[in-house]
Design brief:
The complex is a heterodimer of chains A (100) and B (184). By secondary structure, chain A is mainly alpha-helical. Helix content of chain A is 47%, strand content 0%. The longest helix of chain A has 14 residues, at 4-17. The radius of gyration of chain A is 15 Å and the shape is elongated. Classes of the chains: A mainly alpha (100), B alpha+beta (184). Chain A binds chain B through residues 1-3, 5-7, 9-14, 17-18, 22, 25-26, 28-29, 32-36, 38-39, 41-43, 46, 57-58, 60-64, 66-67, 70, 74, and chain B through 23, 25-26, 30-32, 83-84, 86-88, 91, 93-94, 97-98, 100-101, 104-105, 108-111, 116-117, 120-121, 123-136, 168-171.
């Protein structure tokens, strides 16, 4: 069921884990605890609904801020028109805003 | 086709019927919406019984103390998900890699609540893999203990632990029906 690419990605994660300090790891933990916001849906329709909809709660799930960058970049790579956007980093129960 | 059952109280089920599911941030295996998962229609009754047992367990724990109606509801759903969109913790290689990940992070993390720590480590692992892959998983498959309130029809040595689907992307949930029961 799980492809080779998933296993290779996990290997990559495990290798990088060794270079993370205890402080960085703890900070990573704190940012994920209680549901760190940051997961934006991959599908572009949902993504753009997210961008124009202020009710972020409906469109988020726990991941970290790297996912936001990834999804933004992917949307741009797909030739969707994003004029301006901003990110505001938050943790735990806060909500970060993305706006066009 | 992946299918699942979700046991809850009648009031919560009505809220889900009207507003859809809400993302749960902390749970046994990370954030998401939890279902008893199955593929074959012949397993539906087993999954329904697990959902009822979960409702019984949650009610006993006081989860529905403030609900207008705490009677039992089971929600049946299909999931529009491809195999590639699932992170399957029951794949032996993935489980072993997750154990290695846990060995590397668990002793180094300071946390007060042990359940929160476990849940968060699942979420950290999932988000790390997603970041590395550059894509998001819509569903997690993991085996969990049946609720203690579940009355086994078959010995656990035959069934193994039940499958649990943790839905990460609410859009893929297609509710097929609600069933209400008179249990109080």
């Amino acid at each position: 069921m799980n492809s080779k690419i998933i296993l290779e990605s996990i290997d990559d994660v495990l290798n990088r884990l060794d270079s993370i300090s205890d402080e960085e790891l703890q900070a990573k933990y704190e940012s994920h605890k209680s549901g760190a916001v940051g997961r934006v849906f991959l599908e572009s329709d949902d993504f753009f609904a997210f961008l124009i909809n202020q009710y972020v709660e409906e469109y988020t799930a726990p991941v970290n801020n790297f996912s936001i960058e990834y999804h933004l970049n992917q949307a741009i790579d797909n030739n969707k028109m994003l004029y301006n956007f901003k990110t505001v980093s938050v943790i735990n129960d806060d909500v970060y805003m993305l706006a066009i | 086709l992946f299918k699942g059952t979700h046991g809850t109280c009648y009031s919560n089920a009505e809220s889900i019927r009207n507003n859809g599911f809400r993302y749960s941030k902390i749970n046994l295996r990370g954030g998401g919406i939890y279902f008893w998962g199955y593929i074959l229609d012949d397993i539906e009754v087993y999954a329904k019984d697990l959902a009822i047992a979960w409702w019984r367990f949650a009610k006993k724990r006081g989860d529905y103390a403030n609900a207008a109606s705490s009677s039992c509801s089971v929600i049946f759903a299909d999931f529009k998900i491809d195999n590639q969109e699932i992170l399957d913790f029951e794949d032996q290689q993935i489980r072993e890699q997750f154990i290695v990940y846990s060995q590397k992070v668990y002793p180094r993390i300071k946390a007060i609540n042990p359940n929160e720590k476990i849940s968060t480590i699942y979420d950290m692992f999932i988000s790390d893999v997603e970041k590395s892959m550059g894509k998001s998983f819509k569903m997690i498959h993991v085996k969990v203990q049946a609720p203690k309130t579940y009355n086994k029809v078959l010995p656990m040595d035959l069934t193994g632990q039940p499958s649990c689907y943790v839905i990460k992307n609410l859009d893929c949930i297609e509710i097929t029906r609600f069933e209400e029961f008179d249990y109080e």
